[in-house]
């Protein structure tokens, strides 16, 4: 087995864990080919796999994030202007909170600090959509090519969306309490290595407590889709014969609230049942970026016109990404590229 295949299937995909769980359940008398046994196998394996990856990823990313506290991030971003500022802001979003609701307080802080509005929106778009966790989890299921292109296109959406908002001069559509607030530039003490490790551990535990219910819900839905929903239904609704599949998946995903860890098992099950790759990725992007709770929170900081523009820019980008992945699905999954 090539080294990359070992990384793909054994380290990221944890096929050893799938086999171990299957062996254990079979020894208990469960028929893994049956609906009940198959559902339990899917649920236990995916819940364990995502939880293990979750804890490892959050610990590593939180340790990196300890080098970029909000005040330092503001100072770094303030040194850049124009398109480079949008790119840096989008990249910064990849090592910050894992869901849109957690990103909004940072967005408000950056806006209060006087950073250009478009730059802060580049951060707000990229933070939940293309964090490093999404890269690793997508690699574990769809392969490196899909994961890397997904993240690259997500960053393009963030940079382009922020640039569009910035060019339209929407500052007057930010709520007065955000624009009028004072921002003090406070020098923070440099943490020691032990303090960084403690911070990473605390962030891991805190995020795990918040995210784990969504993991269980997502894996449970995935298990039902994987073993109980007829494949023909999924193909009809989200397969290649439905030209509106990407649009429908985006619209359905917006009212939901979850992060990448909760949506991955649902996307995995839908894809296994015949949904197109771009359609399930659009669903994931819509859930993580445009969830209804996060939009309600954002509405407190911006006026309806700016909120509508944010939704429109993100939705257009998500639909475009879905169409691109659907058009090149065969080449990506088969590894031609």
Automatic annotation (TrEMBL):
Q: Which UniProt keywords apply?
A: Cell membrane, Membrane, Transmembrane, Transmembrane helix
The transmembrane segments are 42-64, 85-108, 114-139, 146-168, 211-229, 241-258, 278-298, 305-328
- UniProt xrefs under Pfam families: ArsP_1 (PF03773)
Per its UniProt record, what InterPro entries does this chain match?
DUF318, UPF0718_permease
Q: Name one GO cellular component term.
A: plasma membrane
Localisation per UniProt entry: Cell membrane
Q: Does the keyword Transmembrane apply?
A: yes
Keyword Lipoprotein assigned: no
What is the topology of this protein in the membrane according to its UniProt annotation?
Answer: Multi-pass membrane protein
Family that this chain belongs to: Belongs to the UPF0718 family.
Q: What is this protein called?
A: Permease
Origin species, per record, is Megasphaera stantonii
